[in-house]
Amino acid sequence: MAATKYNLPTRTTGSSLTDDEAVPEIDPTNTSGLLQERLQAYKHACGYLESYITATEKVQKAHAKEYEKVLKTVSDPLKEGNHFDQKLGGIAGLFENIRTNTQSIANSHLETEKNLKSSVLPILERLHTEIKNKSKELTKGAAKGSKEVDKARNVTQKHIELLGQHTAAFSSSGGKADPSTDPYVIQRGIKHRLNKQVLEENNNRHDLIEVQNSFQTFEAHVIQTFQQALSTFFQYIGGQHERQRALYGDMVSTAQKIPLDFEFKGFIQRNGQLLVDPAAPNRDPSHITFPNQNHVATQPLIAGTLERKSRAIGALKGYSTGHYAVTRSKFLHEFKDDDDFRRDPTPELSLYLPDCTIGAVNGERFNIKGKDASKGKVGGALAMSHELAFKAHTPADAENWYRVIAEAAGSSANFSNDSAVSSPTSPVESRNVSGQQHVPPVQTQGLPQGQGAQSATSASAGGLGKQPYNTPASGGGVTSAGTGSAPNSGVEGKPGQY
Q: Rounded to 10 degrees, what is the CA torsion of 417, 423, 427, 432?
């Protein structure tokens, strides 16, 4: 006998509740759960708005404190405030306006913070409470009915499985069964329980439909509340921004109304006696006097233009013109020119004449051998001795230069008003580093016979110190200190009488 196959009832997958399914796959808690989740979404959205308003409220309070710091930057009186007119319409009035408006901005932020806290947040807090209550109603009503449906379905499912077991046993046992396990009785029991399950499902369905319909109205209320809260929020925030814009505009307007010459006219009026008179003439350095300007030590024994032969090799060899002066400190200084204003008149070359050997005059030429002392003590100690060839404009100029240089090289610093300089009463001062009077050889080539040797010997021995230096200058723009003529330095009188 072939075994009879029986198909046991099972739960099928589906998305809708149909009449031909005893225990449908769809879970009724999904509907209430979905609605519960939607309420949670709105509750969280409301919470987000509450957090946003709260954060904005804190920002407004922080802005108020920050503007108090801004106010402190201009709270103190202006430094050197006496330079500004204290009347309205000037710089002082502008800063007073800035202080007042900045304080008003800080107060507006505090006012906005209070309005948000007292008028906007309560709207959202009440809505939050309403959403919570709605969620509780859903949990106690439709959600509870969904649980009853689920319980009824479980009971029906157990009896269907029991019917499957006993119908299978009925075939194998040859139709023997107990009264309580008779498939007929079980089948009628399933119908009873299935009817009860369907009643629970229909009741729950009606509840869920009612809840779904009420959700539309409730969501409209939630959105309207959001709109009301944000409208109130904008009213306070927008008003605060408009007031702040107006206050800043007042600052700018006050600054724009200041006449461009308002402050300077007041400044001229208050400090006219201390300001520079634009009609006064410019200063001329040639008219300025200073202490010891005409001291005897500042007047040269002779000054003018000479040419010096270059020590360069080859094509660059030749004579270059410079301004030279023999000072009462016994120096022969070389300058690029006699302009004291264009550049600092620092000597290009300085020869201490008592340490030099002076050659004789040959026409308009004469030679001096010595060390350059313009580099200081250390540089002068390391400097090499060089023989320098000079050329005056005329032989008379050369004689004049030679005479003054020779006297400075062989006499003391005590110059008298007499026509001749007296012989020194003490040994001639020497700046030779070794302390020895070493007279280097002097070039005598090209000089007349006997003249060079005689001149060199007399110069090195100091005999020329007794020669007068007050012979009048002869041509070439050379000036010497002598009697009967005023030196070109601008100082009137004879030597020693300034």
A: 70
